[in-house]
Write a structure and sequence with these properties.
Radius of gyration: 14 Å
Structural class: mainly beta
Order of helices and strands: EHEEEEEEE
Helix content: under 10%
């Protein structure tokens, strides 16, 4: 088959519901390289600070709705719904929901 489909209901969140949710779709979609994740953060919530040096992948964060700050190597960028940011593998990054509403993002990553 040339395609696969998946829904959030097909994947378990790795983040407790009171903080939002995080659903990894790579396995459900059986992708070889591309990782696709949906992240929802409640107001005041934050993602894990990390880099991707161990995987060698770049990531793109697309804000579907809400407002977030992304701290990249000590510099903070503000993003709103409709904005995106690309991050290289070596940059340390952390997402913060800086708004008053739940933020929803689509995260994509693949090796360089």
């Amino acid at each position: 088959m040339g395609y696969d489909t998946a829904s959030k209901t097909d994947v378990e969140s790795v983040v407790p519901e009171e903080y939002g949710g995080m659903w990894f779709f790579k396995d459900a979609l059986e992708t070889d390289e591309l990782g696709l994740t949906v992240l929802e953060l409640e107001p005041g919530g934050k993602g894990k600070e990390h880099d991707e040096t161990h995987t060698g992948q770049e990531e793109v964060y697309y804000v579907v709705e809400g407002s977030i700050n992304v701290e990249v190597d000590g510099e903070t960028m503000s993003l709103e719904g409709g904005d995106a940011i690309r991050l290289g593998s070596e940059e340390t990054r952390q997402i913060h929901n800086s708004g008053d509403e739940r933020a929803t993002l689509v995260l994509a990553g693949a090796p360089l």
